[in-house]
Write a structure and sequence with these properties.
With about 260 residues, this protein is mostly helical. Helices cover about 60% and strands about 5% of the residues. The chain is built from eight helices and two strands; from the N terminus they run E-E-H-H-H-H-H-H-H-H. The chain has helices at about 15-35, 40-65, 70-75, 90-110, 115-140, 170-190, 195-215, 230-250; strands spanning about 5-10, 10-15.
Length: about 260
């Protein structure tokens, strides 16, 4: 809809990049506030967030490039792989990259992994709200044809060439569901019964909400579907199972005091 927010002299400020920056800043701020209840310093949250940010961007971009190689990158200059300001970050790739990077750092520093995972989990959902707003402004992750009153239409000059006919506002669907998930997890955080409960709940809930939104997506071609499912729906299955498994295993440990 509006891929470039404004210009600072000759330099354009891309909406997608600005929203990703807001996603990390909002996540860091809310996680720092939440960490006080676990007697975890804001400095610790800041350090692990830096690692998570790097892992998120690398994982999200790597999965996007692998998924859309033939559509967007084959035959293009190598520099296009790194042009994330144009959009092109796969959330699940970012989530996996963030988990790996965060786990490495927490193990290295011998910090309480599941306590910190619980602190961060609601902030992941909040960051996703800004990420999806970025997708809407950028013109990516759009929905399939829609005749409902809330359908949206992208301008014809959008560089990503989404449909110019009314489509489902899937970016808004996802943003609203993530906002609701954030408030639910923040509420549950103060009532958790074991360390890791909030993170496991996030995995379970996000897998369900993401699979629901994917049903309305219209930016996939037939080559991206497997067994009638989108890539994100396929990944949602092991994410959902992982969340259930973590909840079952961690609930057997010592309860929160």
């Amino acid at each position: 809809m509006h891929p470039i927010l404004f210009h600072l002299g000759p330099f354009p400020v891309h909406a997608y990049g600005a929203m990703i920056a807001l996603a990390f800043l909002s996540g860091l701020w809310t996680a720092t506030l939440r960490a006080r209840h676990e007697n975890i310093s804001g400095e610790t949250i800041g350090d692990v967030t830096l690692w998570i940010m790097i892992g998120t961007i690398l994982g999200a971009r790597a999965v996007y490039v692998a998924t859309y190689w033939q559509d967007e990158f084959a035959g293009q200059p190598l520099s296009e792989i790194f042009a994330i300001w144009h959009g092109g970050l796969v959330f699940y790739g970012g989530l996996i990259g963030a988990i790996v990077a965060g786990a490495i750092y927490l193990r290295w520093k011998k910090l309480p992994m599941w306590k910190i995972a619980d602190v961060l989990a609601p902030s992941i959902a909040l960051g996703s709200v800004f990420g999806r707003i970025g997708c809407l402004l950028n013109g990516c992750c759009y929905g399939r044809a829609c005749e409902l009153p809330w359908a949206i239409t992208f301008p014809a000059d959008n560089p990503l060439h989404p449909p110019t006919t009314p489509v489902h506002p899937t970016e808004i669907y996802d943003a609203l569901l993530n906002l609701g998930l954030y408030f639910f997890l923040a509420w549950l955080f103060r009532r958790k019964k074991f360390d890791g409960q909030i993170f496991a709940t996030y995995l379970i809930c996000y897998a369900v909400t993401r699979s629901f939104v994917e049903y309305f997506r219209g930016d996939y071609t037939n080559v991206h579907y497997h067994f009638g499912l989108t890539p994100a729906q396929l990944v949602s299955v092991p994410i959902f199972i992982t969340g259930l498994g973590l909840a079952a295993i961690l609930s057997r440990r010592a309860p929160v005091k």
